[in-house]
Design a protein that fits this description.
The protein has 420 residues and is α/β, with parallel strands linked by helices. Helices cover 36% and strands 16% of the residues.
């Protein structure tokens, strides 16, 4: 098996932990090709894809315009480690589409973007503390790999060996969707918090939308304190709306991290925000950030081709199809006597087995039946549908999920629910 071969040279046999199927059991699937909504694995089996490379495959696998853009650039050069006009083209598109972004710095990953956002917030404000939320994942930089202690305002402790306690102690972890906890944190540490970072729609504990008024309250509190508000839109950017979650909910952060879609599926990240804050980045300012492969022309070309295809018709279609598939999945759950809470926001969705809606916080996610999800995952995979291999991850819908694809998915779900 490929996984046995992989384990001999790769830790755990995978290059990112969720791929190991620890959340659902069994061995991971190794894929070799994709076309539209379909994937083909190394053994020649085909399945409908709802992982979509964790979001960026919004136009379908092997989209002709994206592939053509990559090939055209590959014929010129793979990279320079020097400026290109393409970087300007992509930056101009991002600035025109994302409401709060006046300047943008391209990077190589979402982790780089969030790591730099934290550094920039500290450099701009002259403060050290950072606020994050339980269940929100912002990459694997040391400052953001923390979890909550016993109380709402407990300073963070590391949740990975190798993260020094002194680093984690600079991060406060609060419950998501809890505006009162934010008020208490800022009251306890006045003018000491450099920035608050959150996913405006949480996507790493399942899809958890913000409760009405939560984002607005967070914006008011941070602004009054002189703290920067950072939206991690690596997942939601250009997916839940053309201008990201900030456009959808009408709340403007000071800094925004982006990724995934702006590389069209190739490795990429970006940090954007208010001009006065972004101008503190080197070489214009004194907050250092660099990357040899930042703005790689292959990724930039793919990102431009992707963003140019995202018109309002795309989002209207995503909204309709996300509503349709989640509504029908809930109906199938009732048919088979399964209580399934489903959260969704335009192109993102999550299923929580044996849980009561609404699901608004990490504690509820943790109490959902992850074993039932694992059984459902494998039953769907046997029927040719590939879902997120973890109950704590999000499913994605793109323009490639047409009516016939959705019908086939629902037929598979009917059989899977009956089987588990």
């Amino acid at each position: 098996m490929l996984i046995d071969r992989a384990r001999r040279t790769i830790p755990g046999g995978v290059n990112s932990p969720v791929r190991a199927f620890k959340g659902v059991g069994g061995d991971p699937v190794f894929f070799k090709s994709g076309d539209g909504a379909w994937l083909e694995d190394a053994d020649g089996n085909r399945c409908i894809d709802y992982v979509c490379s964790w979001g960026p495959v919004m136009l379908g696998h092997r989209n002709a315009k994206v592939v053509a853009a990559i090939k055209a650039q590959a014929d010129l050069a793979l990279g320079f480690g020097a400026p290109t006009e393409l970087e300007i083209d992509l930056a101009e598109r991002i600035v025109s589409m994302v409401p709060s972004v006046e300047k943008v710095r391209l990077m190589n990953s979402g982790t780089e973007a969030t790591m730099t956002a934290v550094r920039l917030a500290r450099g701009f404000t002259g403060r050290d503390l950072i606020v994050k939320f339980e269940g929100c994942y912002h990459g694997h930089s040391d400052a953001l790999l923390t979890k909550a202690g016993s109380g709402l305002l407990t300073l963070g402790i590391p949740n990975s060996p190798g993260v020094p306690q002194a680093v984690a102690a600079q991060t406060l972890t609060l419950p998501f969707n809890d505006a009162e906890a934010v008020r208490k944190a800022y009251a306890a540490y006045p003018q000491r918090i450099a920035g608050l970072i959150l996913e405006p729609v949480a996507g790493n504990m399942g899809c958890i939308p913000p409760q009405p008024g939560f984002l607005e309250t967070v914006r008011q509190i941070t602004q009054a304190d002189g703290s920067l508000l950072i939206f991690d839109e690596v997942m939601t950017g250009f997916r839940v709306a053309r201008g990201g979650a900030q456009a959808r909910y009408g709340v403007m952060p000071d800094l925004t991290t982006l990724g995934k879609i702006i590389g069209g599926g190739l490795p990429v990240g970006a940090l954007g925000g208010r001009r006065e804050v972004m101008d503190r980045l080197a070489p214009e300012g004194d907050v250092y950030q660099a990357g040899t492969l930042s703005g790689n022309p292959l990724a930039v070309a793919a990102g431009i081709a992707t963003l140019d295809a995202l018109d309002e018709e795309v989002y209207a279609s995503l909204a309709v199809n996300t509503d349709l598939i989640t509504r029908e999945l809930q109906a199938l759950g009732r048919k088979h006597g399964r209580r399934i809470a489903i959260n969704q926001v335009c192109g993102m969705f999550s299923l929580f087995f044996d849980a009561a809606a609404p699901i608004t916080a990490f504690e509820q996610v943790a109490n959902a039946n992850s074993d039932a999800y694992a059984r459902f995952f494998h039953a769907m995979l046997q029927r040719g549908v590939y879902l997120a291999p973890s109950a704590f991850e999000v499913g994605f819908i793109g323009v490639q999920h047409t009516q016939d694809i959705i019908d086939a998915t629902l037929a598979a779900a009917d059989g899977a629910l009956a089987a588990i």
